[in-house]
Amino acid sequence: MSAPTDTTRCPLCGGPNGCAMAQGAAPETCWCMRTAIPESVLSRLPEAERGLRCICARCAAADPHPASGPDPAPAPGA
Fold first, then answer.
1. Which pLDDT score is estimated for 45?
2. The whole model's pTM is what?
3. Rounded to an integer, what is the distance from CA 27 to the centroid of its chain?
């Protein structure tokens, strides 16, 4: 028998996820409802954890594959 899933912990780092819903509050009060989380971050969630546990704000902001833009211009004199 497996241990119950701790919905208050981030499945990526194991730290507290700050999920309002895990604390019994209404979904619209959760920080994640006001934050865009990149798909590249969400795709890091293990299949078995998807829809069961929320990631934390720190992991949500740590996009491992940021959108690449143009290379910055070299500094003058470089």
1. 87
2. 0.68
3. 16
